[in-house]
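Case study B.
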Amino acid sequence: MIVKWIEALRNNLKTLVRVLIVYLVAIVIFDAALSRHEAHYMIDKIPAYWTFFGAVGCFILIKVAKGIAHLFLSKDEDFYG
Amino acid sequence: MDRWLHPALFFFIGALLLPLFRGKAKKFFILLIPTLSIIDVALMVQGVYGSYHFLNADVVFGRVDKLSLVFAWVFTIMAFLGALYGLHVEEDGHHMAGAFYIGSSLGAIFAGDYLTLFIFWEVMAFSSVFLVWYRREQRSVDAGFRYLLMHVFGGLLFFTGMMLYFFKTGNLVFNQIFPADAGLAEYLILAGFSLNAAVIPLHAWLPDAYPEATVEGAVLMCAFTTKTAVYVLARGFPGFEVLAVLGTAMTVYGVFYAVIENDMRRVLAYHIISQVGYMVAGVGIGTEMAVNGACAHAFAHILYKALLFMGAGAVLYMTGTAKLSKLGGLYKYMPLTMIFYVVGAVSISGVPLFSGFVSKSMIVASAHEGGRLWLMTFMSLAGVGTFLSVGLKVTYFAFFGKESAIQTKEPPANMLWAMGLTSALCFIIGVYPKVLYDLLPFPVEYHPYNLHHLSEYLQILSFTGLVFFLLVGKLAPEDKMNLDMDYAYRKGALFFMKFDERVISVVDTFWGELYRRVGLALLFKNARISYGFDRKVIDGIVDGSAVAVRGVGSLVRKLQTGRIQAYIGLSLLMFFLILWLLIKGM
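Model:
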């Protein structure tokens, strides 16, 4: 049953992607609509701050981690013999 | 119940009785031990039990308060889940090592003094290493020895600190230490504790050993060692700024490696460092809410991290590999395992309705309330990395992604049941956090489900997901290993061997030759002179004492038989002595 559901989703990727885009837009609007009069710090006052944080943070993590790995961290499996 | 029964006793006695059982009775017995311990913890009343005066110090086996109880609860529950998951294991030794390991970690959290804590601390290290060695591969044997060496090193730091502390204060009572009072003794103890908590740079033993442990052993190991360390840090060192900073650094360090590692269990092992980082940071921030958050997170973390290790272990058990570069498309063959793994993954990522959300957000919120915005920023970045590595990367490349040639089926029923039960607990804590909050050491006034929190977490998680799918090609797992701090002692040891071979042995040979040529000639001459003196003066005095020394020597020689069974016998005797003390204390 589970397998069938997953395959149904995989066969309708386009619809799935559209639904997800609507969802992303919706949560940004939701955050922008929240009241901010209890905010103490600057980061609490910017609408959709965490949207920006999540996207940029993820991008930086992938780039930096993979970059440093390729630079010198990554070795063959039998490096220590 | 005004009499107190140490829950460790069930595990110690149970381990010794285990080989007497066969077949179904054995399986029943393996599950009975943790069940009894859960009942024991449920009936416990707060107080101090089992205290003795021993070696000029007060020894306390049972300090039962809210802080030790919250850990006792999760340890005994985890013991049951771990036992269920490993029910199919045939070797008695594996179950016994597990029982000793769990029992000694319970001993450590109830210990009220450093001496008791130290003894259980060492038993933990020496019993858990067998869970690595039982894998019976050369890599595991090597990793086990490195694991043991690092823990012996940590134990020595702790022991030295303990001795200095004793000389300074005249007692070994283990209570909260205030940063202003801390000197060398306290910082050595802190360093010993930190090694077990995998605080960087003393962390490399963890991702080195856990991925080489047995499938069932890793599930236990990920729960007890680091969380016992979190407990002792929360007990002894709340408010130490160094912990707040290092803990936050750990959160990012762990996910950094989790993003690039290839082996599923190594991704998870690195990720333990990140998660324990939150707890260490919570202890370091030191407010009531932060320490509460550390305890809540330890509780939630033990369950979902074990669940993830169960899922990864099931994949390894069924397919023979946990390397993401070799896996893919497993959802077809292991849909239940996939669902349970995903429950663990969303719990750890802090998705609302699951346990990580109600515990992690507490620590992050305490950093926020204290105005520690840098700490909060890095913890949130680690939250991004958590979802990216454990949530998305592993799930995608193991269960979805490109099809691999591997065809398999679901793991044995006991593994599925263990995963199902753990998943249920993660969900229950997520939707009904009161069950967890009521166990915490300080009274809490914290509501995770407010609109700002929900919005914050949904944004972080969703947009991490978006970037992941845009950059998924960049994240393809590679058949590589990554350097870490263990380089220092793995290559360092080789360097030392070479140094020994090339330099020390050359100097030694030269010195020996010099001695033979020059020293001996002088010595002979000298000897002739002293011989005369010796025969006339010294002999008379020495003869008397020589007889006495020979007498003592032969007695020691009888004890030091060099036969291994005699030593084991002596150790067992010591073990029964401790057991007797425990029982007498009830």
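Chain A has a mean pLDDT of 85. The remaining cases will be described in the next quarterly update.
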